[in-house]
Known about the structure:
GO biological process, one term: carbohydrate metabolic process
Radius of gyration: 20 Å
Pfam families: Polysacc_deac_1
Number of strands: 12
Domain NodB homology: 31-249
Largest sheet: 6 strands, parallel
Keywords: Signal
Helix content: 40-55%
GO molecular function: hydrolase activity, acting on carbon-nitrogen (but not peptide) bonds
Number of domains: 1
Amino acid sequence: MNLKNILIAGLILIFNTSYAQETRNWNGKKCAVVLTYDDALNIHLDKVIPMLDAYKFKGTFYLIGSAPVVSKRLTEWRAAAKNGHELGNHTLNHPCDGTLPGRGFVTAENDLSRYTVARAVNEIRVTNTLLKAIDGKDERTFAYPCGDLTISDTLYYNFLKNDFVGARGVVSAYPQLKDVNLSDITAFAQIGSTAAQMIAQIEEAEKTGSFVVLLFHGVGGEHPLNIELEEHRKLLEYLKKKEKDIWVATMVDVAKYIKKGQNLR
């Protein structure tokens, strides 16, 4: 082999190595997937967590502090956390902005537009205290109820950045690691989704070298925003087959990884 061919072979090797590193920047995988479940439902304890455990995946469960499913089933939530699932903060009373269209379900008591920033911050911190009493952990993530970010044009999470590793929103996108906004982490809400539709979202994240957060409420019932339990199982089956290329982790672990990656740049 002459010098020219040696140089070309060397350049190809460098390119291929760099490309492999570039497309496997999610804990050594091509992309990351986070499975999140909102509102503290019985179905999460009865069906979802056992299914995740069967496939050896960990999920993030955003608990409403005042939800009866929290107070009545503390032991089971504690066991889930001990087994590696994240208990995230979804506020004390799930306040949403009642002035927005389609918000007929919002009552005067949980109308975010009637809150002060101080009240919102205090209730979220109270919920953190409750969650720590359940799981003993100091690090966790937050999820905005209804995806509402502001109170009277004030971004209330700005007062809570030191309390959390990150905050999950509801806007769908495929950002690169360096561009992720940890104060409003992108997510894809699943409402009536099939496994094929969710897999397509994951494949797009893999193709772009990004990550995807799947946002669930009901899984097999108990909530108007629901997907079928069998579609959820098919999704987990796909993720299990793709473990070599896809990192499935909790929101807190992925947010910590993103933060570390951004700080290294």
